Structure formats: C-alpha cells, structure tokens
C-alpha cells in the first residue's frame, strides 16, 4: 500500500506538472525576479542586451566580449544566404501552407543538404538556423504571395531583428522603435526551461539523434495553440474588437460559455509573467507613434483588466506580443515563426546540454487500463470488451 501510494504521488503530475525531469544550468523560471538566463535577470537582458548577445549567452554559456560580439554579428550576416536547393523547395511550397509547416520543412531540409558533422557541429548549426530561419521564411512568404524573389542578406551590421523587418517590409528605413520591439521580443521568447518544445528537443536528442531532428520536433511542438500559437490566437481575438464596449460584449459571451481566451495564464507564473510587463511597454509606445494603433492597445488593456477581475488571470508574454507585433506591421500568421527564430537559441542550448548526459529520457506511465482479460477467439469478438482509446 505504501509503495502504491508513493507511485501515485510520483505520477500524479498531470502533463508532468511539478515533475522535475532533470538538471539544467540554462534558465530558471518563477525564481528570483521571475526569469533568468544563466543567472541574468530577464529585465536586465531586455533593457541592456541585444538578441545576439543573448544568443551567445545561451549557446556558448557567457555574455560575449566586444570582439566576440563583432565576430558573431559577422558570422550571422554570412549565414543568411540561402542554398539554391532550399530556394527551390520554398518556391514549390504552396501559398496555403501554414508558416509553421514552412519552418518545420526548412529545418528538415537543411538537415539533408547541410547535415551535422564534426566540422558542421551543433554550435555552427545553431547560429546557421538563427541566421537563416527568418530570411528563409520571408523568402517563401514574398514568393508565395507576390512572386518576388528577395535577396536575403542586408547590411553586414544589421541585427537579426533589423534584417527580418527589412526583408518583410521590403524597405531599408525601419523605425528604431519597431526594431527595438522585435529585438526585445526575441530576447523574451529565447528560453523558458523545460517547456513543451524544449523538452521534446531534449527527448529526441537523448536518443543520440541529430541536431536537425531535435529542432524539427521542437517546431512541431511549438506549432500548437497551447504553446507557441497563443500569440496568433490572441491577435485573432483582439483584431475584430472595435472598442471597449464591443470587447465587453464579446468577453461576456466567452465568460458565459466558459470559452478560453488565449494569452492569459501560465503553468509556472501564477501571477504576473515578467516578460508580459516588458513587452506591454513596447506595445504602448508603439500605440503612441503615428503608425501605431491606440485603439488596439486600449482594447488590449481593457481585456487584461476584465480577465483579472473575472478570472483572476494575468496576461502572459503572448498577449501583448500580439498587439506589439501587429503594430510593427507583422502579419499575424508569422507571429509563431518569429518565436521559432528566437527559441532556436534556447533549443540549441538545451540540445548541447542534453548531449552531456548519457541517459535516454524514458519516463513510465501510470497504467489505468483493464487487467487479466481472457483471450477472445475471433468468432466471439462481436460483443467483446472494447478498451477506451
């Protein structure tokens, strides 16, 4: 009885909630100021660092020196070129494809034409994917929608954020606040402990599979609306709302039907998501610009207040990221792929860390099916007991 109770306690974490699945030196969630990357508070990184510095921190383990950062920026610029074979694949990818399916295809195909080797190792591939995921996505996007073949390399000094926005908007003059907003969002989305996609990547690589397989599996996990797709879902909810009165009407309908509103609540943060506070400031600043959408921000604030009053739920990073990205001119269907560009830094760090272990990740289940059933002959199976599948 004691052993049975112990087993029940060990397996009672539905969705593995509360289960410690391993050791990691990459990030802490819900400790200290809420989120830390290798010991550095997310608030300090968002305020003082660039995404490139954070990528170096997560993948290489330290904040880069001035010379290391310069070298990394030069490397990322070189790695933005797309192989002609990949361009052919992107040009044949249907316009109707979900952009996350495009991202998954990019990762998988790169594993074919630039496979992992001793020289093309996990560090090299990490930075290759960080550099080219955005350009490859936008190459497909413009070709699929307009038949335009873009040049993916911009100025050598351009950051990942600036390169992405230049390619997306097809212009060189990007408002500095837009660039900063995207850059900060990349920092905020970069890493988050053993989340669903990261854990998927670690499980895959624990089998001694290759880097690309782990990234491709992680993208599949991130595609779901309960994980990465929440920022898109939040925007699809917000966009039709004309004003706060309309928002109140729609909210009441959702409350009465107990319908989920994406962008609120978190498995770890029971109160404020520290990342939400940061990205909300940028959404507000964008709403004050001539190209901003003050009504969208006002409605977002109203929805936040009503969700707290009615459901005692706080916004997570995805909620205000939606209005921030929208005001930057980013199409809603590209929100989650941006998450991929960012989270590749965290995935890469976890893949590298997991490879330091010799253990295969193989948990057990708590079996709840029938036991000791007699075998049923074919002639007697019409009314045989059918298990719940």
Could you characterize what this model shows?
This protein has 389 residues and is mostly helical. It is 57% helix and 2% strand. The chain is built from 17 helices and three strands. It has helices spanning 2-11, 42-48, 51-60, 66-78, 84-91, 99-113, 122-146, 160-169, 176-189, 196-206, 211-222, 230-238, 244-257, 274-287, 294-311, 317-327, 335-354; strands at 27-29, 35-37, 40-41. A three-stranded antiparallel sheet has the order 1-2-3.
Q: Helix content range of the residues, please?
A: 55-70%
Largest beta sheet: strand ordering = 1-2-3
Number of strands: 3
The mean pLDDT is 92
Radius of gyration: 23 Å
The global form is globular
Q: Sheet with the most strands?
A: 3 strands, antiparallel
Number of helical segments?
A: 17
Strand proportion, as a percent range, falls in: under 5%
Structure at a glance:
With about 400 residues, this protein is mainly α. Helices cover about 55% and strands about 0% of the residues.
List the helices and strands and how they pair.
Layout: H1 2-11, E1 27-29, E2 35-37, E3 40-41, H2 42-48, H3 51-60, H4 66-78, H5 84-91, H6 99-113, H7 122-146, H8 160-169, H9 176-189, H10 196-206, H11 211-222, H12 230-238, H13 244-257, H14 274-287, H15 294-311, H16 317-327, H17 335-354
Key words describing this protein structure:
mainly alpha, three-stranded antiparallel sheet, 17 helices, 3 strands
């Amino acid at each position: 009885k004691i052993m049975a109770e112990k087993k029940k306690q060990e397996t009672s974490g539905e969705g593995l909630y509360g289960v410690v699945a391993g050791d990691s030196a990459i990030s802490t969630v819900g400790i200290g100021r809420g989120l830390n990357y290798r010991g550095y508070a997310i608030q300090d990184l968002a305020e003082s660092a660039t995404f490139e510095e954070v990528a170096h921190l997560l993948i290489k383990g330290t904040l880069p020196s001035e010379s290391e950062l310069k070298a990394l920026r030069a490397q990322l610029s070189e790695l933005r070129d797309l192989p002609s074979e990949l361009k052919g694949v992107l040009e044949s990818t249907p316009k109707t494809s979900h952009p996350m399916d495009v991202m998954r295809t990019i990762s998988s195909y790169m594993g074919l034409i630039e496979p992992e080797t001793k020289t093309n190792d996990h560090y090299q591939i990490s930075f290759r994917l960080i550099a080219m995921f955005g350009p490859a996505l936008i190459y497909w996007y413009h070709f699929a929608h307009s038949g335009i073949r873009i040049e993916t390399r911009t100025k050598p000094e351009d950051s990942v954020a600036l390169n992405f926005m230049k390619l997306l908007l097809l212009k060189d003059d990007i408002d500095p606040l837009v660039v900063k907003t995207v850059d900060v969002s990349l920092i905020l989305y970069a890493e988050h402990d053993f989340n669903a996609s990261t854990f998927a990547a670690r499980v895959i690589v624990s089998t001694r599979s290759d880097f690309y397989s782990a990234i491709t599996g992680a993208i599949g996990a991130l595609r779901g609306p309960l994980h990465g797709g929440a920022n898109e879902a939040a925007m699809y909810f917000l966009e039709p709302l004309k004003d706060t009165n309309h928002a109140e009407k729609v909210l009441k309908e959702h409350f009465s039907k107990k319908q989920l509103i994406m962008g609120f609540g978190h498995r770890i943060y029971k109160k404020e998501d520290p990342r939400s506070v940061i990205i909300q400031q940028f959404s507000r600043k964008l709403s004050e610009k001539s190209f901003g959408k003050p009504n969208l921000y006002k409605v977002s604030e109203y929805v936040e207040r009503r969700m707290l009053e009615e459901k005692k739920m706080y916004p997570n990073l995805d909620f205000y990221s939606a209005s921030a990205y929208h005001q930057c001119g980013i199409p809603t269907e590209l929100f989650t792929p941006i998450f991929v560009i960012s989270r590749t830094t965290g995935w890469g760090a976890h893949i590298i860390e997991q490879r330091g272990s010799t253990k295969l990740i193989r948990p057990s289940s708590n079996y709840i099916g029938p036991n000791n059933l007699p075998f049923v002959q074919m002639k007697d199976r019409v009314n045989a007991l059918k298990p719940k599948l």
